[in-house]
Amino acid sequence: NMFVFSGRDENRTDFGVQVCFADMWSLQVRTVTPPQDVTFERITPTRMELKWTSDQVFVEAYVVEQSADGVNWIEVHRGHAKSCHIRDLEPNTAYYFRVFGVNALGPGKPSQTFVQTTLTGSPP
C-alpha cells in the first residue's frame, strides 16, 4: 500500500483573529491483484484474442506476456483495454500466456499461466 497525503495545516493571525486551516486529503493506492477469467477467442493458425476481467481501480496498463516454454517471457501487449490480439504466431504451436496490471506501485502479481495452441493450417 502507498498513502499520499496533501493539503495544508496552519495557524495564523489575520486582522487580530486566530485562523486555522486544516483541509487535508489522502489517497490510498494498492498493488494490482491478478486479472481473472482469462479466455482465448478467435483462435486461428497465426493469431488469437485474449480477454480478461479485473475490478481494479488505478490501473495504468495491462501487460500480456508470452512464452514458448513457460520460463522465458516477452511482453507482447501493453494497454488499457481488458483484451488484446496476439498475431504472428506459428500454426499448431503451444504458447504460454499470463496477464498482469501495472499502477503507481509497479507491476502487480500475474494471472495464472495459461497454455493455448494455435490451429493447424497454413497462414492466410
List keywords for this structure.
mainly beta, five-stranded antiparallel β-sheet, 0% helix, 124 residues, elongated
Helix content: under 10%
Number of strands: 10
Question: What characteristic shape results from the CA principal axes?
Answer: elongated
User: Which structural class fits the helix and strand makeup?
Assistant: mainly beta
What is the string of helix and strand elements? EEEEEEEEEE
Mean pLDDT: 84
Provide the low-confidence segments as ranges: 1-6, 17-21
| Beta-strand residue percentage | over 45%
- Roughly how many Å apart are the termini? 48 Å
Largest sheet: 5 strands, antiparallel
Oligomer category: single chain
Per DSSP, the total helix count is 0
**What is the radius of gyration computed over CA atoms, rounded to a whole number of angstroms?**
23 Å
Structure commentary:
This protein is mainly beta and about 120 residues long. The protein contains no helices and 10 strands. The strands form 3 sheets. Strands 5, 6, 8, 9 and 10 form a 5-stranded antiparallel sheet that branches. A 3-stranded antiparallel sheet has the order 3-4-7, with no helix packed on it. It has a two-stranded antiparallel ribbon with strand order 1-2. It is elongated.
